[in-house]
Design brief:
The complex is a heterodimer of chains A (about 55) and B (about 575). With about 55 residues, chain A is an all-alpha fold. In chain A, about 90% of the residues lie in helices and about 0% in strands. Classes of the chains: A mainly alpha (about 55), B mainly alpha (about 575).
């Protein structure tokens, strides 16, 4: 049983540390990704609007 | 008599109500505002296929780390102890393997499909798509059936609302005020999901990811500080012995090897087969993003189980050391019913988290509750539109018609789950209900995806057979097993699915089960009754059958012309 106690203890705290790092990185990176997403959707809408304008 | 009558007061106060209300208003407003970015059905369903790595990871974890997952995982930690951690480990290992190899998800993304049944059509034909879409939506919507109840139990546990009849004889019928709260929450979800689609879902998933991640990390540290790590280990050791740590310890005390194998399958299903996860891969910007998404998300798939398991373990330790609660949750040293053990984690959080933080964590949990609903609503309504209705129109449906139809389905499913989950008493354990309702779809889908993508000889007949086999998974539901007793009981006797129970535990239902047993097997103190066949045995058996019928069906009835798209 002592093997499993050590194993789960190390596993739990290591996972906690890795997740804390991931949370910080993804929070920052995700913010910039949202800005890019909105920009690409807006750009494409504008492009579609230009394409739909009648040409002479 | 409520919990306060036995000296158990929650820390959830007016400040926390204010935080929850403000948070929910903000996220609904953001969701509605995002409507301006939606111009077609691809924007609505897969966010214009514009998700980059970090946002994709946040939305994947945001969706999968829902309140319902937290609730049933905490219950598993409460009943299984540290041994339940193997489920989190299995989920992480399988997700990393999918990320490294691109197994299933990369070919799907390469084919540019929006839903799994769309793949069925390209590989096996329109009929398989319609049947597969129907099975998927049926299974998925049923799977959502208890979400509202789980949410209701969380709100009851953490706020003490509606616990007026709780002790000593716990009554978990949701009170009217709670039904109103949950209905309002669902109304908010319907509002911004029908308007904003996938773009609002990913942005709100991101906000929820940030709030919930840091909230859960803080809760973990506070729990360890409050109870003490050594105290947690010692108490679990004393209560459960080896079974509390070793996942291979045989049932009924432990999980057992078969259960561990089943968890690896469920890990594969939840990351690579389940439509709500696969739709994230389909929405990714490129193949490279898909692989990175899965490698990064493996940490999320691990944490979404690990931390709730830990909260469940902490709740157990806390309850053992509080005599009034011990009498409710562990009467006579045994575990209480499933509904009651579900409430252990929220009651524990209500005791240890300080005012303010408890509001933030609750807001995050409720946002997670809404986030899971919005993703699932969007997912199943998309499947119904794209895979069940649209294929019937030979000339196809316009983007506008599909968008309208998807929104109508979102509202219809919302109304259905409100009636099913909140007002209808299912009388079913949460984990078993969810695993089996999901298995109706994924047991067949595993065969179709794996063989459809990687075996050129997989045929239409094989696909139909595997999909129909998946329906056999309903046998895993206890009420279905009881109804099919005339078929299953001889098998149960043959394979030893019986158990002794104390004579005082015999109810009307168990009498019905034992009535055909020889009288000499009934002793003075215990009686032999039919045991339930575990979800792991039903699930693994149905998967094996689906694979077998796919292979045999394909070999015996090959397609006229083999698809070259696999």
């Amino acid at each position: 049983m002592s093997f499993w106690i050590y194993f789960w203890t190390i596993f739990f705290f290591a996972s906690l540390a890795v997740f804390a790092t991931l949370a910080v990185v993804v929070s920052i990176g995700g913010f910039f990704n949202i800005r890019s997403l909105f920009k690409s959707l807006t750009d494409r809408d504008e492009q579609n609007a230009v394409n739909e304008e009648p040409t002479e | 008599m409520g919990l306060s009558a036995i000296g158990i007061e929650t820390n959830f106060g007016p400040l926390d109500w204010g935080i929850v209300a403000a948070y929910l208003i903000i996220i609904v407003a953001v969701g509605v505002y995002i409507k301006r970015y939606i111009s077609n059905v691809t924007d609505f369903i897969v966010a214009g296929r514009g998700l980059r790595t970090f946002l994709a990871v946040a939305t994947m974890i945001g969706t999968e780390l829902g309140l319902v997952t937290v609730m049933y995982s905490a219950q598993k930690g409460f009943t299984g102890g540290f041994a339940a951690f193997h489920i989190a480990l299995a989920a992480a290992i399988v997700t990393v393997m999918v990320g490294l190899t691109g197994f299933i998800v990369v070919p799907l993304r390469r084919m540019n499909v929006m839903t799994i049944p769309e793949f069925y059509e390209r590989r096996f034909g329109r009929g398989v798509r319609i049947l597969g879409g129907t099975v998927l939506a049926f299974s998925g919507i049923l799977n959502m059936g208890l979400f509202l109840k789980a949410g209701g139990i969380f709100v009851m546990g953490i706020t003490n609302i509606g616990l007026t009849d709780m002790a000593p004889d716990m009554q978990l019928a949701l009170g009217t005020e709670l039904k109103i709260i949950m209905t309002v929450l669902l109304g908010c979800v319907l509002l911004y999901t029908t308007l904003g689609g996938m773009v609002s879902v990913v942005v709100l998933d991101y906000i929820q990811f940030v709030v919930l991640s840091f909230g859960l990390l803080a809760t973990s540290l506070l729990s360890i500080r409050y109870l003490g790590w050594q105290n947690i280990i010692d108490t679990v050791s004393e209560l459960k012995g080896t079974a509390g740590f070793n996942p291979f310890h045989p049932p009924p005390e432990g999980f057992g090897t078969l259960y561990v194998i089943w968890m690896f399958f469920l890990g594969l299903v939840s990351c690579a087969i389940w439509q709500t996860a696969v739709i994230r891969a389909c929405a990714a910007e490129s193949i490279r993003v898909v692989k990175r998404l899965y490698i990064w998300s493996s940490i999320g798939f691990l944490i979404r189980f690990l931390l709730p398991f830990f909260f469940g373990i902490c709740a157990l330790v806390f309850i053992v050391q509080k005599e009034p609660l011990r009498a409710i949750f562990l009467p006579d040293g045994t575990e209480a019913s499933s509904d009651i053990t579900l409430m252990a984690m929220p009651i524990f959080l209500g005791q240890i988290l300080p005012a303010g933080l408890i509001g933030i964590v609750s807001a995050g949990m409720l946002a997670a509750f809404m986030s899971t609903h919005d993703s699932y609503l969007l997912c199943w309504s998309s499947v119904l539109t794209q895979d069940v209705v649209a294929p019937w129109f030979k000339k196809g449906l316009s983007s506008k018609a599909r968008l309208l139809l998807t929104r109508i389905f979102i509202v219809a499913i919302g109304i259905f789950i409100l009636v099913w989950g909140l007002w209808y008493d299912l009388g079913q354990d949460l984990w078993d209900y969810m695993a089996i309702s999901g298995a109706i779809y994924f047991t067949g889908a595993i065969a179709l995806l794996v063989f459809g993508l990687y075996w050129k000889r997989a045929s239409k007949v094989g696909a139909y057979s595997a999909l129909f086999c998946g329906f056999l998974a309903v046998v895993g539901l206890t009420p279905v097993q009881n109804r099919l007793g005339f078929l299953l009981n001889p098998l149960k006797l043959h394979f030893g699915f019986t158990k002794d129970i104390p004579i005082e535990d015999v109810t009307e239902k168990t009498v019905l089960v034992i009535k055909d047993l020889p009288i000499e097997q009934i002793s003075a103190k215990t009686v032999l009754v039919y045991d339930t066949i575990g979800s792991e045995i039903v699930g693994l058996t149905v998967i094996a059958l689906a694979v077998l019928t796919m292979i045999v069906g394909s070999l015996v009835f090959p397609d006229d012309r083999m698809s070259s798209e696999a």
